[in-house]
Design goal:
Elements (H helix, E strand, L loop, with lengths): L14 E2 L5 E2 L10 H29 L6
Antiparallel strand pairs: 1-2
């Protein structure tokens, strides 16, 4: 979490950055609202987790099965 002067993210969805990370900028009032902060953090990390899991499963499905 960082302080910024950048404009607030429009809508409730995080923005995907050029490097593949996700970002959400909240208004100043959200800084004092634990529910809004928690929701923003969960909303921002969920797409990153889904992307990482998807990439892992895609890579794993390309591997040959290990024989016992």
């Amino acid at each position: 979490m960082l302080d910024t002067q950048d404009p607030v993210t429009s809508g409730n969805d995080p923005e995907r950055m050029e490097d593949g990370s996700f970002s959400m900028i909240l208004d100043h009032e959200a800084e004092f609202n634990i529910s809004r902060l928690e929701n923003a953090m969960l909303s921002t990390t969920y797409p990153a987790l889904r992307t990482a899991l998807s990439e892992h499963l895609e890579d794993a499905s390309k591997k040959k099965p290990v024989k016992n």
